[in-house]
Amino acid sequence: MKIQSYRLIRWINNFILYFILTFFALVMIFPFLYMLATSFKTPADTFRYPPHMLPRNAATIAVTGYDEPLPLYKVDVDGQPKEYALAKSNIKVGTYAPADNLTSTVERYLTEVKPTGGAMNQQKVSVNGKEEKLFDVDVDGKIIPMILISQTTVGEFIDPQNPENKVFQNVRLSEPVEDFGAHPENYTEVVELNNMARALTNTALVTILVVLGQLVTSVVGGYAFARLRFPGRDTVFVFYLGTVMIPFVMLIVPLYQLMVLIGWTDRLAALIIPWMFTAYGTFLMRQHFITFPKEIEEAALLDGASRLQILTNILIPASVPALATQATFTFLYAWNSFFWTLVIINVGNEKNHVLTLALNVLRGRASDTPNLILAGAAIAIVPPLIVFILGQRFFVESVASSGVKG
Question: Which CATH architecture has domain 187-401?
Answer without folding.
Answer: Orthogonal Bundle (1.10)
